[in-house]
Amino acid sequence: METVKNHFLSDMGIMLGRSMRHIIRSMDTIITVTIMPIAFMLLFVYVFGGAIKTGTDNYVNYLLPGILLIAIATGISYTAYRLFMDMQRGIFERFNSMPIARSAALWGHVLTSLVSNAISVIIIILVALVLGFRSSAGILSWLTVAGILALFTLALTWIAVIAGLSAKSVDGASAFSYPIIFLPFISSAFVPTESMPSVVRAFAEKQPVTAIVDAIRALLSRQPIGTEIWIALTWCFVILIIAYSFAMLVYKRKAS
Prior knowledge:
Pfam families: ABC2_membrane (PF01061). By secondary structure, the protein is mainly alpha-helical.
C-alpha cells in the first residue's frame, strides 16, 4: 500500500511539474486571468462605487471578495482548455500506456490550477491594496480565507475537468466558465441583496457565491461570521464531491 501511495505521489509530482512548465513558459495566461478582474475592480471603484450604497466607507473592502471569485472562475477555464488540448493531441493515451498512475495526469492539471489561481489572487490583492483596500484580519482569519478560496478553486477546477474531457471544440472547453463568472454579479459581491427585486434577491441569497463572499468579507473585516462560513464550506464541499465524481466517471470512460 505504501509503495502504491508513493508511486502515485511521485507520478503526480511529475505531472504537476509538466503542467507548471507550461504556465511558466506562458505567463500571459496569468496576466490574462488577472486583467479582467482588475478592470472590473477599477470600473466599480472609480465609476460605479460612488453611486452604490453598501453601508461601508471603503467600497474596495466590500468589493474584493467577489473580484477574487471572478478571477478564480476565469482561471479555471484555462484548465479546461489545457485538458482539451491534451486529449486532442493524444497525450493521455501516451500516459495510459506508461507505468504511471492513471489519475496522476488529471491531478497535475488540478494542482496547477490551484497554484496559478493563487498567484492571480495574490496579484489582485496587491492591486486592491494600491486602491485602498485595508484589512484588520489576523493570521488565522487570512488562513481561513485562503482555505475557502483554495476549496472553491478545487471545486470549480473539477467542473473544468469535466468540460475539458467532454468538449468537442476549444470554444466548448472554455465556454462553461461564462455562467460561473456571471454568478457573482447576481450575489452580494457588488451590492447588498436587499436592494434587488424580490425574485432576483431570492436567487442571489440562495446561490453559493453569496455565502462564500459574505464569509470572506466578514473574515477580512473582523465581523461576526455567523452561519455564512458553514454554508460556504458546505457549498464548496458538495460541488467538489459531485464534480470530482462526475469527472472521474468521464475520465474512466475516455480512458477505457
